[in-house]
Write a structure and sequence with these properties.
By secondary structure, the protein is mostly beta strands. It has no helices and 9 strands. The strands form 3 sheets. Strands 2, 3, 4, 7 and 8 form a 5-stranded antiparallel β-sheet that branches. It has a two-stranded antiparallel sheet with strand order 1-5. Strand 2 and strand 3 form a beta hairpin. It has one domain. It is elongated and about 80 Å long. It comes from Nocardioides iriomotensis.
């Protein structure tokens, strides 16, 4: 039996205020895209970070059991800035950060009835 494996990430928005040439500049980078590498040669792209169990926002069903895979996620950030509290301006480029791979052992479950049934 193949159970859905739940994936999720907990990325944070990056926000900084700096002084540049005497001007107050606010910069903000927000996660926008996630590429989930399942470790079995497949990947999925989403616009959400998934969520912990019992949510099943981002899932993958492995076809091979008794193997260890190394899943990871790449998070792409979109950025914007504003000067002296003015209007926000989007930065057209994005930045992708590759997350570290984690070891995941794939197991197989078999349904078994137990007890006395007459």
């Amino acid at each position: 039996m193949n159970f859905a494996t739940i994936f999720y990430a907990e990325p944070e928005t990056f926000a900084r205020t700096i002084t540049l040439l005497g001007q107050r500049v606010e910069v903000e980078a927000t996660p926008s895209t996630y590429i989930w590498h399942h470790g079995d040669g497949t990947s999925t792209q989403t616009s959400t970070p998934g969520a912990r169990f019992p949510a099943k926002d981002v899932i993958h069903e492995y076809t091979d059991a008794h193997v260890t895979v190394m899943p990871s996620v790449d998070v792409t950030y979109a950025a914007r800035f504003r000067v002296n509290g003015g209007a926000w301006q989007d930065i057209p480029e994005t930045v992708t950060i590759s997350g570290p791979a984690g070891s995941l052992r794939i197991a197989e479950a078999t349904a078994v009835l137990s007890g006395s049934y007459e």
